[in-house]
């Protein structure tokens, strides 16, 4: 995880929701504003929570020794075959390419500011941690390098993984 804790209620949508709760109507003025669990309860919903859970704890498919994220747009039989041929069956190189997740691509209409940067860094560190655990559990006899790169150029903050041979 990152070295500083990030409060999800700092994000604009969550902060606006929190501000919309008027003391005296649904809560006592002396009580603190609801936090992220209440936000999830009323604003996220089970379908979105499960989608995010799948991001954090993905399913995998194994093809020709390559471990790939299941159900992501970067993978198809055609793209796999193309990269298998181009990279001459280099498992780690194919995995690194097809298992790359640029975090900016996950969200529409992000604002480039300090709060967003900190939130993406926290998310990337969390994905790195949970992917390591998921890969270790699913493939206990294999070793993987899972990396979060908080790049300021190129694709921006990115999480990826590949086998260590």
Q: Would you kindly provide a written description of the structure presented here, covering whatever features stand out?
A:
The protein is of the alpha+beta class. The protein folds into 2 domains: 1-44, no CATH class; 59-164, no CATH class. The protein is 44% helix and 16% strand. The protein contains 6 helices and 5 strands, in the order αααββααβαββ. The chain has helices spanning 12-20, 36-44, 46-56, 77-86, 91-98, 114-138, and strands spanning 60-63, 66-69, 101-102, 143-150, 157-164. The strands form 2 sheets. It has a 3-stranded antiparallel β-sheet with strand order 3-5-4. It has a two-stranded antiparallel ribbon with strand order 1-2. A hairpin with a 6-residue loop joins strand 4 (143-150) and strand 5 (157-164). The protein is elongated and about 60 Å long. The model has no long low-confidence stretch (mean pLDDT 87).
Which secondary structure elements does this structure contain, and how are they paired or packed?
Elements: H1 12-20, H2 36-44, H3 46-56, E1 60-63, E2 66-69, H4 77-86, H5 91-98, E3 101-102, H6 114-138, E4 143-150, E5 157-164
Antiparallel strand pairs: 1-2, 3-5, 4-5
List the keywords:
single chain; 165 residues; alpha+beta; 2 domains; three-stranded antiparallel β-sheet; two-stranded antiparallel ribbon; 6 helices; 44% helix; 16% strand; elongated
